[in-house]
Write a structure and sequence with these properties.
The structure is a homodimer. By secondary structure, chain A is mainly alpha-helical. In chain A, about 50% of the residues lie in helices and about 5% in strands. Chains A and B meet through helix 1 and helix 5 of A and helix 1 and helix 5 of B. Chain B binds a DNA duplex through helix 3.
Chain lengths: ~130, ~130
DNA sequence: TTCAATTCCTACCAATTTACTATGAATAGT
DNA sequence: ACTATTCATAGTAAATTGGTAGGAATTGAA
């Protein structure tokens, strides 16, 4: 039960964008790659997931780049992680098909654990994370 | 961030053994395999992990098998999962080496999340799980 | 209007991990 | 002695992870 590198890198990007939230400029992937140490091409894929969940917006072309759609004071770590970590689902059967539905003794356990994890992650905002105020 | 099949199967075994906790007999792997639908050989490996963490005891030979070392009223789901799921660690850097120690903005986050998950899992006992009283 | 800088889309790939299967030795009861 | 069991360890196919790569689409600036 490990967090993927996408989850870690996605957080790095989010924190980096949080620093620039009040500026007018967009931050391009080259800069993000330099700041995080992750390859541009891989970051592009990760950021695409965040964009799909409306966590960042983008503009193309020269002076293009990315920006958070929401203030780091309200945007939570939970939302970022769910975007890049395939919804953070602990087991497949939770929202999909559970082969043993009804007889699976642990089904409710996974559900509660899932709630527990997410409700914690949703209490931490990006700005808290950036200031290590957790 | 998925639970492995070892984690799920380990729980099944634990719940099954919980049913027989008050009996004198040991439950052998053939029976456990039939009850859980998992192959004997795979279960042997999983149970070995539980044995290493002193969650079950075993006797060999005819009439041999496995038994919980502790009452299902006090044995928690957390202990079972930590035994079979490589200590449930969310990220590698938590108890091992963190390449970016000091600069890793998420280090504390993972620590807190880890605590959160485990403290929840340690509130659920095997008997509660067996009775779906979660 | 052309050019350069950027995001976007998607195919591919190597290494690792997962989820087992398989073989046989050690041990204990009958 | 025999049989039923656990214990130890090696092997392996499939899936997943963690990327790399190529190029199309878009935008701003010269």
């Amino acid at each position: 039960m490990k967090m993927s590198s996408k989850a870690r890198y996605g957080l790095y990007v989010a924190v980096e964008l949080a620093q620039n939230y009040n500026k007018d400029e967009y931050t391009n992937v080259t800069t993000l790659s330099q700041k995080t140490g992750v390859s541009e091409k891989y970051l592009e894929q990760i950021i695409a997931l965040m964009k799909k969940q409306n966590i960042v917006t983008a503009t193309r072309g020269a002076t293009g780049g990315y920006k958070l759609t929401e203030s780091p004071y309200t945007l939570t770590v939970g939302r970022v992680l769910r975007a890049v970590e395939d919804n953070l689902e602990i087991v497949d059967c939770l929202h999909g098909e559970c082969a043993q539905r009804g007889t699976c003794v642990a089904h409710n356990l996974w559900g509660k654990l899932y709630e527990n994890i997410n409700s914690y992650l949703d209490t931490v905002t990006l700005s808290q994370l950036a200031e290590d105020n957790i």
